[in-house]
Write a structure and sequence with these properties.
The protein has 24 helices and eleven strands. By secondary structure, it is an alpha+beta fold. Helix 5 packs across helix 8, helix 9 packs across helix 23 and helix 11 packs across helix 20.
Length: 576
């Protein structure tokens, strides 16, 4: 071999720098695969395989499908944002199962080719957009979105999920049997008897109860009811002075010397009329035959020039008030201007203000909103005059000292003892009812009707009968109960609500119906409602409740991970 050939061969086999680096990388990689952990090897394996991790599998109508890691993460983001933006929660947690279920709904939306049109989006977001561009921007940025397009895209995504849920929920419509079962449960019938312990049965006993002074003191501080306190409190009152302008004053030369009535615009008169019509321009003697069918407020046409005159009167008083605050002698100031001055030095109670001669009216209640010693800034418009008022001294509504009303407080205390004695008697009545051999202390008492009636007779109590009645009000078939039958109606409501948790023969109570007494009831028995007498309104109500229950059950089970696993063979994989 020639030397030139040898040189050629050596040159061809010489390793380049790039090849040397590649070989080193392969060596390092070979070293790693013998030292990495199992999870690292899985990651490397998937990376070299070029296929994204799979978090779940399912069977869609079109065939098998997978939920990849990317789809899983997107479902988690859309679920969180949708719940915050739309205030509607399909899944109450963020577990892997819930996110897989949400991702399944997303795939179903794609499968069904559900789209959200611009009109649907506009109707939903119109209220937000109407608040202005800046408010709209602040709203979507609060969810971490940069543009309105991103926000509206998220809303569309959520609406697509809602549409899928609505489509799936069609299967949740209640069957006719479900509706009738709901109706029968609502109107299950019960037979109840009861006795009442009236507080007024214990008047003499309460009158003989000895008491300590501390008991009365404590009752005065904490035991009086709001109604009792109201009866004992001294009414709020006020003393004040007032400057007024009426029609007579308006026609005087003295007032006209400083006030010139300018012709108001129709807009000003309309505004004045609208502001004062409920106080000044109500029609009198409403309900009489000659007023039958008329509006309660007099119209501008009916009032004629009265609105203009009242407006001028108000303007005159407003002008008069400008220099009043700085006047040291308001009486002299009023006389100088041709107005009238009056002073009410004695305290006048709130209820008396309405009947004061000449100036009385509900508007005078505003005196309690003013500051003592200061003229109120806003004039008070009356039907025939305008007032400027100044509270001189105000007295708040207050409960007198115990020493001043002690006898009344003691009377109220004895009334409270009557109610206490009635409750104690009711509790004693229940405690003395016969108990079964297996009775456990603290359990409800159950007796036969004969035993209940015998115990009532021994206590000189009349047993009242509710008779067979539905647990829920049935307007068409309910018995007529007089207006004073508050205990009867109250027991029907209370026992009706509890009926599912009661047993036949159970004693219920004591039930406190305040002044109407303390009732102890006895559930004799119950029976199914008669399904041959179902009224349309009752049926519709039962259908609504049955539908709500069915949809609630669907929300819990139908679109849950387990529900979708049954429908679409949804399965989670081992991928994390």
């Amino acid at each position: 071999m020639r030397s030139d050939d040898l040189k050629e061969e050596v040159h061809v086999n010489q390793m380049s720098r790039g090849k040397r680096l590649a070989l080193i990388a392969v060596a390092v990689f070979c070293l790693l695969i013998f030292t990495v952990t199992g999870p690292m090897a899985d990651v490397l394996t998937r990376a070299f395989a070029g296929k994204p991790p799979v978090y779940g599998t399912l069977e869609l109508p079109s065939g098998p499908a997978e939920i990849t890691a990317e789809e899983y993460q997107r479902a988690a983001r859309q679920k969180e944002r949708g719940e915050r933006m739309m205030q509607q929660v399909f899944y109450t947690d963020n577990s892997r199962e819930s996110i897989l279920a949400y991702a399944t709904l997303m795939k179903l939306a794609d499968e069904l080719k559900i789209e959200v049109g611009p009109e649907q989006l506009r109707s939903l977001l119109g209220a937000f957009a109407a608040q202005g561009e800046q408010a709209y921007m602040n709203f979507y940025k609060s969810f971490g979105l940069r543009t309105a397009q991103q926000f509206e895209s998220e809303v569309k995504n959520f609406l697509r999920i809602s549409a899928v849920v609505d489509l799936l929920s069609v299967s949740a419509a209640p069957r006719e049997q479900d509706i009738m079962d709901e109706w029968a449960s609502m109107f299950e019938e019960m037979n109840v008897e009861y006795v009442v312990f009236h507080p007024n049965q214990f008047i003499e006993e309460a009158a003989n109860i000895a008491y300590e002074e501390q008991e009365i003191n404590d009752f005065y501080d904490e035991g009086l009811t709001p109604i009792q306190r109201s009866e004992l409190e001294v009414e709020q009152a006020v003393s004040f002075d007032v400057i007024s302008v009426d029609s007579e004053s308006m026609n005087s030369e003295l007032l006209q010397s400083w006030f010139t009535a300018e012709e108001p615009s129709e807009e000003a008169l309309d505004g004045f009329y609208a502001s004062n019509k409920y106080l000044l321009y109500m029609r009198e003697d409403l309900g009489k035959d000659d007023n039958d069918g008329l509006e309660p407020i007099l119209t501008r046409e009916e009032l004629g020039g009265r609105v203009r005159n009242d407006y001028h009167m108000h303007q005159a008083v407003t002008q008069l008030a400008f220099d009043l605050a700085s006047s040291e002698d308001p009486e002299a100031y009023a006389l100088e201007k041709g107005a009238k001055y009056s002073k009410y030095e004695d305290m006048i109670t709130l209820s008396e203000l309405n009947d004061l001669p000449e100036i009385g009216g509900v508007q005078l209640r505003r005196l309690f909103q003013g500051d003592e010693g200061s003229w109120m800034q806003t004039p008070i418009q009356m039907t025939d005059r305008v007032l400027l008022m100044r509270p001189l001294e105000k007295r708040d509504r207050v409960l007198p000292a115990l020493e001043e009303i002690r006898d009344d407080v003691v009377d109220f205390w004895r009334e409270s003892q009557q109610a206490t004695l009635a409750m104690e008697a009711a509790e004693s009545f229940i405690a003395n009812l016969p108990k079964s051999s297996d009775y456990v202390e603290g359990d409800p008492v159950s007796v036969a009707s004969e035993a209940f009636q015998t115990a009532a007779s021994s206590a000189n109590l009349a047993v009242e009968q509710m008779g067979w009645v539905a647990r829920t009000v049935r307007i068409a078939v309910d018995p007529f109960w007089p207006s004073e039958a508050d205990v009867l109606r109250g027991l029907r409501s209370q026992i009706g609500v509890q009926l599912d948790d009661l047993v036949d023969g159970q004693v219920i109570g004591p039930n406190d119906f305040a002044d109407n007494g303390i009732a102890v009831a006895h559930l004799i028995s119950r029976r199914d409602a008669n399904r041959d007498s179902v009224y349309p309104a009752e049926y519709n109500r039962a259908k609504l409740i049955a539908t709500q229950k069915a949809y609630s059950a669907f929300q819990t089970d139908g679109i849950s991970y387990e529900g979708l696993a049954n429908l679409y063979q949804l399965r989670k994989t081992e991928a994390e």
